[in-house]
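Protein in question kept underneath.
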Amino acid sequence: MIRKLDPKPQQKSAACQAKGAADLFLLQRISQDSILSPMNTLTKFAVTFGAVSVVLAALPAAAQEKGNNAALSATALSCMQTATDVRDNAIIAAWDVQYPAIKTALQTRQASLKAAWTQTDAKTRRAATKAAWDAYKKSAKSARAAMKASHKAAWTKFEADKKACSPKATKDDNGSAGMDNQL
């Protein structure tokens, strides 16, 4: 919040003026205090050291990056295209397997829960709904585990293929298995 100064300052009471003088004295005393001076120096040193460290750490990376800007051979480019196709087709196939498994699990759960809700006895109904949910949980967990294993295998193979294509290719592809895990 910005306050504008009043062109005609109001008269302050003597107590207010005394408090202002005491605050001013305290601020002057703190600024001259020997405890804060080393802290300021230490802070300045830490900031300077941090900035220099960042610059020095970036220099070798920049030099290495400059050296790796060479174009990949046509063979390496073709190899990377094939590796990408193999990886993505494997992940698509894994999704093609997971979708029907989850759909079947949901349909089975739906039918089981509907049947459970036909029970008039509360104890029997609770046992039937618990069994329906447990069966669904087991089926969904199994489908997710199969998807995860297929996904991991596809990415492991891709990483090996990428290294075999060209060591330089590893720097060009910024994708990771974690991005696919978010689907």
